Fold this sequence. Notes:
The structure holds 3 protein chains of 3 kinds.
Chain A: H1 5-18, H2 25-30, E1 46-48, H3 51-54, E2 58-61, H4 67-76, E3 80-89, E4 94-103, E5 106-117, E6 122-124, H5 133-144, E7 147-149
Parallel strand pairs in A: 2-5, 6-7
Antiparallel strand pairs in A: 1-2, 3-4, 4-5
Chain B: E1 17-21, E2 33-39, E3 42-49, H1 57-61, H2 70-76, H3 81-96, H4 102-131, H5 135-155, E4 164-165, E5 168-169, H6 175-200, H7 203-209, H8 217-223, H9 228-231, H10 239-242, H11 263-286, E6 306-314, E7 317-325, E8 333-337, H12 339-345, H13 347-350, H14 356-365, H15 370-374
Antiparallel strand pairs in B: 1-2, 2-3, 4-5, 6-7, 7-8
Helix pairs in contact in B: 2-3, 3-4, 4-5, 4-11, 4-14, 5-6, 6-11
Chain C: H1 13-25, E1 30-31, H2 37-46, E2 69-73, H3 81-90, E3 96-100, H4 102-106, E4 130-132, H5 139-154
Parallel strand pairs in C: 1-2, 2-3, 3-4
Amino acid sequence: MIPSLEQLSDQFTRLIRLGAVTPNVEDSTAAAPGPTATPPPSPGPVQPVDYSLKGYHLDVTVSPGQVVLAAEILDQNGFGLDAITGVDWIAQNELEVVYDYFHPLSPLRVAVRARVPRGHPELPTLSGVFPGANWHERETHDFFGIRFLGHPDLTPFLLPEDADYHPLRKDFNA
Amino acid sequence: MIASNDIPSRTNPQETFVLNLGPQHPATHGVLRIKMTMNGEYVTRAEPVIGYIHRMHEKMGENRTWAQFLPNTGRIDYLSALHYNHAFVGVVERALRLEVPRRAEYIRVITSELNRISSHLVWWSAFLLDLGGFTPLLYAFDDREKILDLLEGVTGSRLTYCYFRFGGLCNDIDDEFIKGTRAFVAQMRPRLKMYRELVTDNIILRKRLEGIGPISAEMCRKYGATGPVIRGSGVAYDVRRSEPYSVYPEFDFEIPVFPEGDSMARYLVRMEEMAQSLRIIEQALGKLPPGPVMGKVPRVLKLPPGDYCYAVEAARGRFLVRTVSDHKEIPYRVKLRTPSFSNLSLYEEASKGMMLPDALALLGSLDLVIPDIDR
Amino acid sequence: MEASVDTSQIVKFAKLDELLALSRANSLWPLTFGLACCAIEMMAAGGPRFDISRFGAEVFRPSPRQADVMIVAGTVNKKIAPAVKTLYDQMLEPKWVIAMGNCAISGGPFVFPGQYAVVEGVDQLFPVDVYIPGCPPRPEALIEGILALEQKLTGKRRWPVVKPPQ
């Protein structure tokens, strides 16, 4: 069941259209004055991307509530979870979580991203769909303080057991 | 004594105890701690605890310029440092669309494959140390010293290389290196044959590894396990074929795949990978083009805003660098997706119900480097 | 009856001390405590080319109770610092510590403003006898460190210092 780029794009577009909350890609970039140059907003939530420049084929932006459904689409298509990356966009008061996926039998690479407000960063956990997400989410929680709802054990992982700081936040002072 | 009502024993109504395979233990994998809940000799739950060698590489990525971060890449997985160099220079080259001269790409492949062999030799010796065989370490380290001599003459380091530069290499190879590598390839093939006869076909090793620690291809996919772990479970996934980079498409080599999924399959994958690396090195030496080893690179490196990734097939599996740039000289975010992290994440599920020595054989067959997990 | 015999005329402890120091120096049993990259160079030093068993030090003991010298090879983290201290405390006297590599000496390349995880030098936890700089130091440097430790114990150096040809 090796999917094609068009099939995947279709499935994601349908998911996002069905979603109750539309991803607010345009709002966040419009509200950002910030001194740092922000990446240009993708023209739509499901974007094919130049692999030779970016290293992945499809860029999908979803709302935080839809990350599990996006993961299920990829799981059904035979993808594996590559990495979960947190990014602190302090100038826009948001934290972004990027889920990278790879396929063991095809060269396709998909990146799914979601943004959460910095003061209240919560996302549902993926560990029901991909058990490997368990560790990635724990690490992202360690570094950014993002809470993954439904995660079995969100205690410090790479940091000491009594750590109460989140070092990769931009306003972290040792 | 721990009272039995302190230990959660939902899975096993019988009394269990917690055995702490502490951060310091003789299975020389590094500072990994595994809290094993045991029922006698059987493991009911093996929970890895990591972070004992967390060295803040991702935070340093936000505090160093692109070039200043290069030495870090050699220290994430020090046994296959050149692959990690490659991924980081690759992501910058990809984002800036830098041209790398063909000679540099060929030398990158030759040195990376030599690094892969030396990494697998260290894995082999440490794994056999875990299983109780001391002698193969002496043979393997002898072969490894020859590789290290070759690479030291070119890169200047024995272990934590920082040889690749954005746009090429820091220096060219000389005739001594080419002659030495050809001699090494010639003498390594009979050594691999000797290792197969003495160790791989050894009845004790086969009894210790065959059927031990079965990992299915589906489990590998769910946990993101890559490298010899997924190739030992029957899936021919190799980043060199799936997302070809550098000049790997120009070489003729096989991806060893074994379907059984047990520790013996993972062992055989790595032994065969060493032979395939020798093939690649021979072909690359034969076709080595002349020319410069450094391309044109802007003086000040500033990547256009956005995120970029680059993946390589390191000795342990898929290594991905994902970087976010905001058009400054310092990256905004550097994410390192390391193979040992994902490979170890399946250990808890894979080791349920195994006996302790078999659980350690499984751990050794995953080929972990702990700073690779903790970064 | 008084025992006012001057024992120093009957038993020469100096020679016994020298003998004890010589035997301790020639059979230093290291603790297997490789943390990171320097551990591989420590393994290479135990390997066939560099061979620290020439100096009596190839018997790596996994238990700190059986070890004389702790070679701290690698970065000491704030998370593992209590464990390292526990291992040091468990070792029996006489014990020595060799700090191998830049990380064990001062935190190494991982010290930067805003660093939150690395202990800047293992001598913040317990006293160190020999420092071996390098990132990682060559196995010959580790052997030189062991020879320096032997010199600290016995007062004499086993091999003369090799002077490079002019």
